Amino acid sequence: MFAYFKKLQFLTLLVNVIALSSCEKGFKEDDYSAYFGGEIINPNSRVIYLCKNNEVIDTIQLDKNNRFFTKYDSLAPGMYTFKHDPEYQYIYFDKNDSLMIRLNTNEFDNSLTFCGRGDEKNNFLIEMFLKNEDDNNASFDIYDYDLKKFDKKIDSDFKIKNAFYERRKKDINWDEDFDIYAKSMLEMPHLAKKEMYPLAHKFRTNQDVCSRLPKDYYDYRKEIDFNNEKLTNFAPFVRYLTSMLSNITCRKDVTGKSIENNIHKLKVADSIFKNQKIKNAVLNNIAFMYLLEDQNIENNKRFLGEYLKLSTDKERQKEIKKIGDAIQNLAQKKRLEDVELIDANSNPVNINKIVKKKTVLFFWTSEAKSHMELVHKRASELQQKHPDWDFIAVNIDDSSENWMENLKKYNFKNSTELHSTNFNSIKDKWVITKIHRTMLLNADGTIKNGFVSIFDANLEEYLK
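The line above is the sequence of Thioredoxin-like; the predicted structure tokens follow.
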């Protein structure tokens, strides 16, 4: 019912395309024209980018009413993304689709709806995306479960989403090409949890379950097409690959130093992926994640030497080196670069001037509600156990108004609350790529450890 009323808001936008998107129209065999339009409420900029395989193929201007509409004389069917910085979302075009979007940047994903020819498939994608996001935000505790309870929980969740997938597939009757993405969005998050379980369980409980896993635990890997080029940049598939390659170190012969584990990952990726485009994407991801984990300069040189032997992606190689340089600025005993922060009174804050004693610096966003609540609860518990440490929470929401509202609503205690007013700056200078990131600072403001997690079972050892 809610979706129906939201669709009514499209009527003024659809007047110009009703004839184009009518089911009664016949299309020529060689006609690949398509239409893309919509409305952006509270826009962050005056442009939208339509992208294919992470490459911008069109820059679309918003008009004075924050609307846009464009015709493509020839648009190949397939998966695209549209970006309205700093957010993006997927959009699938079939032949001759006429797709209209409407969204509010204050709730980008939750407010997004599609209308017009091709809307049902795309509304399925956003519904499945939101189901997966809700599932992920509520999944922190499942990695504490024993294997039997863990399997029962994720299988139960999967059955519910699979029933939704089967129902919508039957109703919409989509083709095999779209089903590649629909099935990936259904299955990959589920399988990623299975890959993450051994490592996450040990991380959170200090209990090693690797040797106790059933022999058939990873049999599902035999059914995965690791060389399907259509999925190279599709987020659910990429996240699964990240989890799988991290999990390969759940073996005695590769346990040990980070440098050895990650070189082993490179070699495994080289053996699994025959498609060079996919291989490059996976190698880039391994390199990026490794550089966040190990700040030893000599190790970095050795790792990057191995990476460069296998990667043929020259542009991404430059980006990886840039990230490596930024990470070196977060090494022990260095000071954090200044970023744009404000306090609850909207006063600017210099991080290097407010640190007066040992400090735990953690991050949160209202987009991940479950994490927001858990991380503050964890910080409060740690502060009571370790009163000699200060706790600073940095919010990375786009909107300072949303941040202020959440501060009033939740009344967080035992931590100093700050807000980042320039996410790109804090992302680049502090290499903030995941919300679980935590930094430990010495009393003089220098870095003690720039890459830990507040949920790490061993964190309290660092605080002693």
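Note on the example: Residues 176-205 form the longest helix (30 residues). The longest strand covers residues 34-41.
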